[in-house]
Amino acid sequence: MALRNRLSESTLKDYADALTRLGLELGTLDNVEATAKAISALKGHRLEASISAYRHYCRIHKLPEPIFEVPKRRHRRPLPYVPSDKVLKASLVIPKRARWRAYFRLLYETGARPSEPFNLRVQDIDFESEKVRLRTLKRGGYTREREIPISPLLAGLLKALCEGKGADDYVFSLEHDPKKPLKRKYAQRILEHVRKVLRSQGYDVRGLRLHAYRHAYATRLYQATKDLALVQRALGHKDLETTMIYLHIQPAQPRLYDVKALSLDDEEGISQAIAEGWEKVLQTKTKIWFRKPRWLP
After folding, report:
1. Does the pLDDT value for residue 167 go beyond 50?
2. Are residues 106 and 206 in the same domain?
3. Does residue 198 fall inside a structural domain?
4. Is residue 177 part of a domain?
5. Is it the case that residue 294 has pLDDT exceeding 80?
Protein backbone atom coordinates (compact mmCIF):
# COMPACT_ATOMS: atom_id res chain seq x y z
CA MET A 1 0.00 0.00 0.00
CA ALA A 2 2.89 2.37 0.72
CA LEU A 3 4.12 2.00 -2.84
CA ARG A 4 0.64 2.22 -4.30
CA ASN A 5 0.04 5.55 -2.60
CA ARG A 6 3.28 7.03 -3.93
CA LEU A 7 3.76 5.57 -7.39
CA SER A 8 1.76 5.37 -10.60
CA GLU A 9 0.28 2.09 -11.79
CA SER A 10 2.76 1.80 -14.65
CA THR A 11 5.72 2.29 -12.26
CA LEU A 12 4.27 -0.24 -9.83
CA LYS A 13 3.99 -2.74 -12.66
CA ASP A 14 7.61 -2.11 -13.69
CA TYR A 15 8.78 -2.60 -10.11
CA ALA A 16 6.77 -5.79 -9.73
CA ASP A 17 8.16 -7.19 -12.99
CA ALA A 18 11.74 -6.32 -12.01
CA LEU A 19 11.43 -7.82 -8.53
CA THR A 20 9.68 -10.94 -9.80
CA ARG A 21 12.43 -11.59 -12.32
CA LEU A 22 15.14 -11.02 -9.73
CA GLY A 23 13.39 -13.27 -7.24
CA LEU A 24 13.11 -16.09 -9.76
CA GLU A 25 16.77 -15.73 -10.75
CA LEU A 26 18.20 -15.47 -7.22
CA GLY A 27 15.69 -17.49 -5.20
CA THR A 28 15.44 -14.75 -2.55
CA LEU A 29 15.65 -10.98 -2.34
CA ASP A 30 16.47 -10.80 1.36
CA ASN A 31 20.22 -11.25 0.89
CA VAL A 32 20.90 -7.58 0.24
CA GLU A 33 24.59 -7.87 -0.63
CA ALA A 34 24.07 -10.72 -3.13
CA THR A 35 21.04 -9.07 -4.71
CA ALA A 36 22.81 -5.72 -5.06
CA LYS A 37 25.77 -7.44 -6.68
CA ALA A 38 23.50 -9.25 -9.16
CA ILE A 39 21.69 -6.01 -10.02
CA SER A 40 25.00 -4.18 -10.53
CA ALA A 41 25.86 -6.68 -13.27
CA LEU A 42 22.76 -5.76 -15.27
CA LYS A 43 22.75 -3.22 -18.10
CA GLY A 44 20.54 -0.60 -19.67
CA HIS A 45 16.91 -0.11 -18.75
CA ARG A 46 16.78 -3.28 -16.64
CA LEU A 47 19.64 -1.99 -14.46
CA GLU A 48 17.89 1.33 -13.73
CA ALA A 49 14.50 -0.29 -13.11
CA SER A 50 15.95 -2.97 -10.83
CA ILE A 51 17.91 -0.46 -8.73
CA SER A 52 14.83 1.68 -8.08
CA ALA A 53 12.59 -1.32 -7.44
CA TYR A 54 15.00 -2.99 -5.03
CA ARG A 55 15.61 0.21 -3.07
CA HIS A 56 11.87 0.45 -2.45
CA TYR A 57 11.74 -3.24 -1.55
CA CYS A 58 14.46 -2.78 1.07
CA ARG A 59 12.75 0.26 2.58
CA ILE A 60 9.40 -1.49 2.85
CA HIS A 61 10.89 -4.65 4.39
CA LYS A 62 13.28 -2.62 6.58
CA LEU A 63 16.39 -4.20 5.10
CA PRO A 64 19.78 -2.46 4.96
CA GLU A 65 20.21 0.14 2.22
CA PRO A 66 21.67 -1.69 -0.82
CA ILE A 67 24.98 -0.52 -2.27
CA PHE A 68 25.31 -0.87 -6.03
CA GLU A 69 28.65 -0.95 -7.81
CA VAL A 70 27.66 0.81 -11.00
CA PRO A 71 30.27 2.76 -13.00
CA LYS A 72 29.44 6.42 -13.58
CA ARG A 73 28.81 7.64 -17.08
CA ARG A 74 31.90 9.31 -18.47
CA HIS A 75 30.17 11.27 -21.17
CA ARG A 76 26.92 13.18 -21.30
CA ARG A 77 24.30 12.05 -23.73
CA PRO A 78 24.47 14.02 -26.98
CA LEU A 79 21.79 16.63 -27.48
CA PRO A 80 19.04 15.48 -29.83
CA TYR A 81 18.18 17.45 -32.93
CA VAL A 82 15.47 19.99 -32.05
CA PRO A 83 13.19 21.46 -34.75
CA SER A 84 13.17 25.20 -35.35
CA ASP A 85 10.79 27.41 -33.41
CA LYS A 86 8.94 28.02 -36.68
CA VAL A 87 8.18 24.31 -36.98
CA LEU A 88 7.13 24.01 -33.34
CA LYS A 89 4.77 26.99 -33.56
CA ALA A 90 3.29 25.66 -36.80
CA SER A 91 2.56 22.35 -35.06
CA LEU A 92 0.42 24.05 -32.41
CA VAL A 93 -2.45 24.92 -34.75
CA ILE A 94 -2.73 21.64 -36.66
CA PRO A 95 -4.69 19.50 -34.14
CA LYS A 96 -8.41 19.92 -34.80
CA ARG A 97 -9.64 19.12 -31.31
CA ALA A 98 -9.25 21.78 -28.61
CA ARG A 99 -7.83 19.32 -26.08
CA TRP A 100 -4.87 18.53 -28.31
CA ARG A 101 -4.26 22.16 -29.20
CA ALA A 102 -4.16 22.83 -25.45
CA TYR A 103 -1.87 19.84 -24.88
CA PHE A 104 0.77 20.84 -27.43
CA ARG A 105 0.65 24.50 -26.44
CA LEU A 106 1.14 23.45 -22.81
CA LEU A 107 4.27 21.51 -23.81
CA TYR A 108 5.52 24.49 -25.81
CA GLU A 109 4.88 27.18 -23.17
CA THR A 110 5.91 25.27 -20.03
CA GLY A 111 8.46 22.66 -21.09
CA ALA A 112 6.35 19.99 -19.41
CA ARG A 113 7.34 16.37 -19.71
CA PRO A 114 5.03 14.71 -22.25
CA SER A 115 3.25 12.74 -19.51
CA GLU A 116 2.79 15.64 -17.06
CA PRO A 117 -0.30 17.20 -18.69
CA PHE A 118 -2.11 13.89 -18.12
CA ASN A 119 -1.47 14.23 -14.36
CA LEU A 120 -2.86 17.76 -14.38
CA ARG A 121 -6.04 18.25 -12.35
CA VAL A 122 -8.41 21.21 -12.38
CA GLN A 123 -7.11 22.34 -8.97
CA ASP A 124 -3.59 22.59 -10.42
CA ILE A 125 -4.52 25.56 -12.60
CA ASP A 126 -4.74 29.08 -11.20
CA PHE A 127 -6.73 30.92 -13.85
CA GLU A 128 -6.58 34.23 -11.99
CA SER A 129 -2.76 34.40 -11.96
CA GLU A 130 -2.47 32.29 -15.14
CA LYS A 131 -0.18 29.60 -13.78
CA VAL A 132 -0.14 25.80 -13.84
CA ARG A 133 1.35 23.47 -11.25
CA LEU A 134 3.28 20.59 -12.78
CA ARG A 135 4.69 17.52 -11.06
CA THR A 136 6.18 14.14 -11.87
CA LEU A 137 6.74 11.08 -9.70
CA LYS A 138 9.96 9.55 -10.97
CA ARG A 139 11.16 5.96 -10.60
CA GLY A 140 13.14 6.78 -7.50
CA GLY A 141 10.02 8.17 -5.84
CA TYR A 142 11.19 11.80 -6.04
CA THR A 143 8.59 14.42 -6.90
CA ARG A 144 9.62 17.83 -8.25
CA GLU A 145 6.74 20.30 -8.30
CA ARG A 146 6.81 23.76 -9.87
CA GLU A 147 4.48 26.54 -11.00
CA ILE A 148 4.88 27.86 -14.55
CA PRO A 149 3.18 30.96 -16.03
CA ILE A 150 0.98 30.45 -19.09
CA SER A 151 -0.47 32.78 -21.71
CA PRO A 152 -4.08 34.00 -21.71
CA LEU A 153 -4.56 31.97 -24.90
CA LEU A 154 -3.52 28.73 -23.20
CA ALA A 155 -5.46 29.65 -20.06
CA GLY A 156 -8.58 30.01 -22.20
CA LEU A 157 -8.07 26.62 -23.84
CA LEU A 158 -7.55 24.93 -20.47
CA LYS A 159 -10.54 26.69 -18.92
CA ALA A 160 -12.78 25.34 -21.66
CA LEU A 161 -11.52 21.81 -20.91
CA CYS A 162 -12.28 22.29 -17.20
CA GLU A 163 -15.89 23.36 -17.63
CA GLY A 164 -18.26 21.10 -15.69
CA LYS A 165 -15.42 19.29 -13.91
CA GLY A 166 -14.62 19.08 -10.20
CA ALA A 167 -11.39 20.29 -8.60
CA ASP A 168 -9.99 16.76 -8.43
CA ASP A 169 -10.91 15.79 -12.00
CA TYR A 170 -8.28 15.45 -14.70
CA VAL A 171 -7.98 18.28 -17.20
CA PHE A 172 -6.99 15.88 -20.02
CA SER A 173 -9.48 13.13 -19.28
CA LEU A 174 -11.42 10.52 -21.16
CA GLU A 175 -14.42 11.94 -23.00
CA HIS A 176 -17.07 10.63 -20.61
CA ASP A 177 -15.04 9.99 -17.45
CA PRO A 178 -13.18 12.98 -15.93
CA LYS A 179 -11.75 10.68 -13.26
CA LYS A 180 -9.61 8.83 -15.82
CA PRO A 181 -6.77 10.62 -17.60
CA LEU A 182 -5.80 10.22 -21.21
CA LYS A 183 -2.63 8.27 -21.97
CA ARG A 184 0.55 9.36 -23.67
CA LYS A 185 0.03 6.91 -26.53
CA TYR A 186 -2.90 9.03 -27.75
CA ALA A 187 -0.67 12.11 -27.87
CA GLN A 188 1.88 10.14 -29.85
CA ARG A 189 -0.76 9.31 -32.47
CA ILE A 190 -1.76 12.96 -32.76
CA LEU A 191 1.89 13.93 -33.16
CA GLU A 192 2.28 11.46 -36.02
CA HIS A 193 -0.63 13.19 -37.76
CA VAL A 194 0.94 16.60 -37.07
CA ARG A 195 4.25 15.44 -38.53
CA LYS A 196 2.49 14.17 -41.64
CA VAL A 197 0.66 17.46 -42.21
CA LEU A 198 3.78 19.55 -41.62
CA ARG A 199 5.80 17.38 -43.98
CA SER A 200 3.16 17.83 -46.68
CA GLN A 201 3.47 21.61 -46.21
CA GLY A 202 7.23 21.51 -46.76
CA TYR A 203 8.41 21.76 -43.15
CA ASP A 204 11.49 19.93 -41.89
CA VAL A 205 10.10 17.65 -39.18
CA ARG A 206 13.37 16.02 -38.16
CA GLY A 207 13.45 15.64 -34.38
CA LEU A 208 9.79 16.59 -33.93
CA ARG A 209 8.80 14.39 -31.01
CA LEU A 210 6.92 15.07 -27.82
CA HIS A 211 10.10 15.71 -25.83
CA ALA A 212 11.38 18.22 -28.41
CA TYR A 213 9.08 20.90 -26.97
CA ARG A 214 10.81 20.48 -23.61
CA HIS A 215 14.29 20.80 -25.10
CA ALA A 216 13.24 23.88 -27.07
CA TYR A 217 11.68 25.46 -23.98
CA ALA A 218 14.86 24.90 -21.96
CA THR A 219 16.98 26.47 -24.67
CA ARG A 220 14.67 29.49 -25.07
CA LEU A 221 14.53 30.06 -21.33
CA TYR A 222 18.29 29.88 -20.92
CA GLN A 223 18.95 32.14 -23.89
CA ALA A 224 16.51 34.67 -22.44
CA THR A 225 17.77 34.59 -18.84
CA LYS A 226 21.24 32.99 -18.81
CA ASP A 227 20.11 31.57 -15.45
CA LEU A 228 20.82 27.85 -15.31
CA ALA A 229 19.31 27.47 -11.84
CA LEU A 230 16.07 28.99 -13.12
CA VAL A 231 16.01 26.54 -16.02
CA GLN A 232 16.60 23.68 -13.56
CA ARG A 233 13.62 24.75 -11.44
CA ALA A 234 11.41 25.32 -14.48
CA LEU A 235 12.15 21.86 -15.84
CA GLY A 236 11.65 20.23 -12.43
CA HIS A 237 15.11 18.65 -12.33
CA LYS A 238 16.51 17.37 -9.06
CA ASP A 239 20.13 17.62 -10.24
CA LEU A 240 21.75 20.46 -12.15
CA GLU A 241 23.70 17.90 -14.17
CA THR A 242 20.46 16.69 -15.69
CA THR A 243 19.71 20.22 -16.84
CA MET A 244 23.15 20.41 -18.42
CA ILE A 245 22.18 17.46 -20.64
CA TYR A 246 19.68 19.80 -22.26
CA LEU A 247 22.03 22.73 -22.67
CA HIS A 248 25.77 21.94 -22.30
CA ILE A 249 26.42 25.62 -21.61
CA GLN A 250 27.31 27.71 -18.58
CA PRO A 251 25.85 31.01 -17.30
CA ALA A 252 28.11 33.93 -16.50
CA GLN A 253 27.09 37.58 -16.78
CA PRO A 254 25.37 40.25 -14.62
CA ARG A 255 21.71 41.06 -15.20
CA LEU A 256 19.82 44.02 -16.61
CA TYR A 257 16.32 43.98 -18.13
CA ASP A 258 14.64 44.66 -21.44
CA VAL A 259 11.02 45.79 -21.14
CA LYS A 260 8.11 45.68 -23.57
CA ALA A 261 4.33 46.11 -23.46
CA LEU A 262 1.74 44.16 -25.43
CA SER A 263 -1.95 44.82 -25.95
CA LEU A 264 -4.31 42.49 -24.07
CA ASP A 265 -5.87 41.67 -27.45
CA ASP A 266 -2.55 40.35 -28.81
CA GLU A 267 -3.00 36.77 -27.61
CA GLU A 268 -0.43 35.27 -29.95
CA GLY A 269 2.13 37.92 -29.06
CA ILE A 270 1.60 37.35 -25.34
CA SER A 271 1.87 33.59 -25.81
CA GLN A 272 5.10 34.00 -27.75
CA ALA A 273 6.55 36.36 -25.12
CA ILE A 274 5.90 33.89 -22.30
CA ALA A 275 7.28 31.02 -24.38
CA GLU A 276 10.45 33.07 -24.97
CA GLY A 277 10.98 33.59 -21.26
CA TRP A 278 9.59 37.12 -20.82
CA GLU A 279 8.32 37.69 -17.27
CA LYS A 280 4.89 39.29 -16.80
CA VAL A 281 5.39 42.09 -14.26
CA LEU A 282 2.41 44.44 -14.68
CA GLN A 283 -1.06 44.38 -16.20
CA THR A 284 -3.31 47.38 -16.86
CA LYS A 285 -6.78 47.53 -18.42
CA THR A 286 -5.31 47.56 -21.91
CA LYS A 287 -1.72 46.26 -21.74
CA ILE A 288 0.56 43.65 -20.21
CA TRP A 289 4.13 44.68 -19.41
CA PHE A 290 6.94 42.16 -19.68
CA ARG A 291 10.61 42.17 -18.81
CA LYS A 292 13.48 39.89 -19.76
CA PRO A 293 17.03 39.76 -18.38
CA ARG A 294 19.67 41.32 -20.61
CA TRP A 295 23.27 40.25 -20.17
CA LEU A 296 26.29 42.50 -20.47
CA PRO A 297 29.16 41.29 -22.72
Report:
1. yes
2. yes
3. yes
4. yes
5. no
Question: Is the whole-model pTM more than 0.70?
Answer: no
The per-residue pLDDT for 10 is 73
pLDDT per position as a tens digit, 133-152: 998 765 444 456 889 999 99
In a domain, 76, yes or no: no
Domain that holds residue 187: 85-247
**Do residues 156 and 47 both lie within one domain?**
no
Comparing CA positions, the residue from 185, 7, 205 lying closest to residue 94 is 205
The domain tally of the chain equals: 3
Together in a domain, 13 and 113: no
243/121 same-domain check:
yes
Q: CA-CA distance, 184 to 114, in Å (whole number)?
A: 7
The tens digit of pLDDT for each residue in 114-131 reads: 999 999 999 999 999 999
The residue among 112, 88, 92 whose CA lies nearest residue 102 is 92
The pLDDT tens digits of the residues spanning 237-290 come to 877 767 766 663 434 444 456 778 889 889 888 888 888 878 887 777 888 888
Calculate the CA dihedral of residues 5, 113, 266, 130 and round it to 10 degrees.
20
In a domain, 149, yes or no: yes
